[in-house]
Amino acid sequence: MKNPYMRDARPWDLFNRELGRVNDDLAQERFEICKACPKLIKATSQCKECGCIMHLKTKLPNASCPLGKWSAVDPTENEDII
Length: 82
Fold this sequence. Notes:
By secondary structure, the chain is mainly alpha-helical. 20% of the residues lie in helices and 5% in strands.
């Protein structure tokens, strides 16, 4: 059965405490990738591709880069989730 938390991230997932968050190291690693991407609007940390605020999106385990630069992680199978 598919994990219900492994669906595309949505903005309101930031308010879902049951979803958890990735640890700080993984969130920072993801955001470093975003900061090097030409699709990031540096002034707002917003992605031109998906429209998300990336310093927030990178903290969600079910989030992934729309350009495939980083992937979602399964919270039931990963130690990076807190």
